[in-house]
Design a protein that fits this description.
17% strand; 47 residues; 2 strands; 34% helix; alpha+beta; two-stranded antiparallel ribbon
Length: 47
């Protein structure tokens, strides 16, 4: 299980993204960022 805490990415947010793979986490993080923070994640930001 891979986990990313939104506040670890620099947002004042208690969101926690969990998925089976890193690729899946990145997809879910991008969706969360757009829906909740109105931020578009680019490939450069993902690394």
């Amino acid at each position: 299980m891979k986990v990313l805490h939104c506040n670890d990415a620099g947002f004042d947010c208690k969101g926690i993204i969990r998925a089976q793979s890193a690729d899946e986490v990145l997809k879910l993080v991008a969706q969360h960022a757009e829906q909740v923070h109105q931020v578009t994640i680019t490939p450069e930001m993902a690394f």
